Amino acid sequence: MTFNSKAQLGAALLGQKKHAEAEPLLMAGYEGMKQREDRIPPQGKPRLTEALDRLIDLYTATNKPDEAKKWRAERAKYPQVAPQVAPQVAPPPQEKK
């Protein structure tokens, strides 16, 4: 959870275009999760690929194509993960009047 939090904070800074501040948090978040990948529960696995996606976004935004290419290659090692959506729940039946 610590490293996911770092990655999330880095993503927020990336969204604010604070690239220099975002980079170390994104890196620490990804590297920490990668080191502990075998201990991440299944529902948390998408966080790892999300961190990779943010690194790709960072290096694309900062015009560092070689770095972006490196992280795209790392990202390609993981299957595409479908976004998790809440199941649709039918509304309760309404009373007839």
Q: How would you briefly describe this protein structure?
A:
The protein has 97 residues and is mainly alpha-helical. The chain contains 4 helices and no strands. The model has no long low-confidence stretch (mean pLDDT 87).
Order of helices and strands: HHHH
- Uncertain segments are none
Mean pLDDT: 87
Straight-line distance between termini: 51 Å
Shape: globular
Largest sheet: none
Proportion of residues in β-strands: under 5%
Using only C-alpha atoms, the radius of gyration works out to 17 Å
- As a percent range, the share of helical residues equals 55-70%
Helix tally equals 4
The SS-based structural class is: mainly alpha
Number of strands: 0
Structure description:
The protein is mostly helical and 97 residues long. Helix content is 61%, strand content 0%. The chain has 4 helices and no strands. Helix 1 packs antiparallel against helix 2 (19-35) and helix 2 runs antiparallel to helix 3 (45-61). The longest helix has 17 residues, at 19-35. The relative contact order is 0.13. The mean pLDDT is 87.
